[in-house]
Amino acid sequence: MTHLPGIKLVGVGKTYGDHAALSSLDLTVARGEVVALVGPNGAGKSTTLRILAGAIQPTSGMAWIAGHDVLLEPLAAREHLGYLPQRLGVPLTTVVGDLAALLSRARGLPVDAGARALAEAHLGNRLGATLGEISGGQRQRVMLVLATLGAVEVLLLDEPGISLDTDGAEEVRDAIAAARFDGASVLFASHHLSDVARLADRIAVMVEGQIVACGSVEELARRAGVRWDERIAEPPVEQIYRILIQGGGRPVTAPIRLVSA
Amino acid sequence: MTLTAMIRFEWAAARRGRVVLFFAAGFALASVGVALAGLAAGGVIAVQGFARTSVSLLQLVLWTVPLLALLLGAIHGAECYELEFLAALPMRRSDLIVSRWAAWSLALGMALVGGFGAAGMVIAIFAGAADALQYLALVGIALLLLSAGLAIGLWIGVAGRTRARSIGMAVVVWFVLAVGADLTAIVVLAVLPAGGATWNLAALLLANPVDSARALGLGVFSADVLAGPTGASLRHLLGGWGAIPLGVSLIAWTAGPLRMASKHLQSKDL
């Protein structure tokens, strides 16, 4: 690994006709850092992740993965990238074992590495099934295991907790924590604010294609004018989020809201 | 990641598809049916030999192989836009296209060889092995046409983006290649003065993989006089029936569309 940030976006924009899905986005995710993208539907979270994954091209600006320009050096940028898209991203007729073998080869691992990782996640009995034959939750777990297979330096997760039960959600949290422990840069989009507060070092709040606020929960709370007693209460992330979204990220100076005793 | 890994992945998917079995069974039945029907029309119940069966099967190959290949190619080309997970792996977009073409060419090619092979066994047992080389040449031409059809279909699919639109476009292209080009040749002959259409007609032949395969087949079967005005023009220009330009045309109809499909997919958002 190098000293370069795992993820860097400078002035990234994306337009579809007259509609700006992203406007001059700047964001850096350091090695071993977890950043969450939150915001209402259509805020540009998935667009940001898809640009980094190389699925779509930015209209303006530049993006780097592990120091490699995603447009000019796409293969090097994706060499150590793990990506879990919101959509499945492979045909439903794909056999789980075949996909595991492909990911193993793609990561330069022994061909059975993916199958062993799935077995460790108690999904070994699904290797012969197609993705269309297993439940939505199992499918998401299979894709998560394969996205994080091998030495992933940058992990992009788009709504990773979608359609997962409690155990599955715990696996997502474990995967993010493990990636951070291994020094990977993690950028994930989520609507589960409690997970976001627990997992992310920083939270980027997006509204209409722009990051309107970015920082730790404490920094965002200050910006939103929200205070809480850290000794006895969880951070009121829902309240912070709503204030920031409604105010377009503008700092709130008064009144200070006191949450909990 | 190597292209080989992607081809293995696509091959695993292609060989599991039922379409391959249908393709093999369809061609086996059609071949045996043609071998029997040729003489049955004359009131004789017997299996006709390889030479007659090959000529009879050529038209079937010219209609069905491009149609199936164009449709399958179009469906799998359009599906490339749904492969976001795979596209995030360290590979070029062109690898997606080439691996799909290679895997399906291999799977359908094996089905075609299997189907024709099974029928060939029946013919060899009941009618003898004379002119078996002509039958093998027919299989070779079918494989070239299959390869070109898949490549063109993938290009159509990538350009069409959605499955429904791509299938519609593939059917139109098939109609143009299988029927429309002949109608154009007739119009060219009617409009241009006698002898003035030689180059145009020869170009029309080489610009159409189905017509190229037809002329190649009829040339191999020494029936090139049946190749029509376009084939006659090519023969007039080259002094022979033009096996090399026809073969090169079919190979170019594989390489060109694959390149165009790759370039198109490279420049588009998934």
Could you characterize the architecture of this molecule?
The complex is a heterodimer of chains A (261) and B (270). Chain A is of the alpha/beta class and 261 residues long. Chain A is built from 9 helices and 12 strands. Chain A has helices at 45-53, 74-78, 96-106, 113-120, 136-147, 166-181, 193-199, 217-224, 237-246, and strands at 7-16, 19-29, 34-38, 60-65, 68-69, 81-84, 154-158, 185-189, 202-207, 210-215, 226-228, 257-259. In chain A, the strands form 3 sheets. A 6-stranded mixed sheet of chain A has the order 6-7-8-3-9-10, sandwiched between helices. In chain A, strand 9 (202-207) and strand 10 (210-215) form a beta hairpin. In chain A, helix 3 packs across helix 4 (113-120) and helix 5 (136-147) runs parallel beside helix 6. Chain A is globular. Chain B has one domain (3-264). In chain B, 81% of the residues lie in helices and 0% in strands. Chain B contains 11 helices and no strands. Chain B has helices spanning 3-16, 18-40, 50-79, 84-87, 93-127, 132-160, 163-191, 198-206, 209-220, 228-238, 243-266. The longest helix of chain B is centred in the middle third of the chain and has 35 residues, at 93-127. Chain B is globular, with a radius of gyration of 20 Å. The mean pLDDT of chain B is 86. Chains A and B meet through helix 2, strand 6 and helix 3 of A and helix 1 and helix 4 of B.
Secondary structure: elements and pairs:
The complex is a heterodimer of chains A (261) and B (270).
Chain A: E1 7-16, E2 19-29, E3 34-38, H1 45-53, E4 60-65, E5 68-69, H2 74-78, E6 81-84, H3 96-106, H4 113-120, H5 136-147, E7 154-158, H6 166-181, E8 185-189, H7 193-199, E9 202-207, E10 210-215, H8 217-224, E11 226-228, H9 237-246, E12 257-259
Parallel strand pairs in A: 3-8, 3-9, 6-7, 7-8, 11-12
Antiparallel strand pairs in A: 1-2, 1-4, 4-5, 9-10
Helix pairs in contact in A: 3-4, 5-6, 8-9
Chain B: H1 3-16, H2 18-40, H3 50-79, H4 84-87, H5 93-127, H6 132-160, H7 163-191, H8 198-206, H9 209-220, H10 228-238, H11 243-266
Helix pairs in contact in B: 1-5, 2-3, 2-5, 3-5, 3-6, 3-7, 3-9, 5-6, 5-11, 6-7, 6-9, 6-11, 7-8, 8-10, 9-11
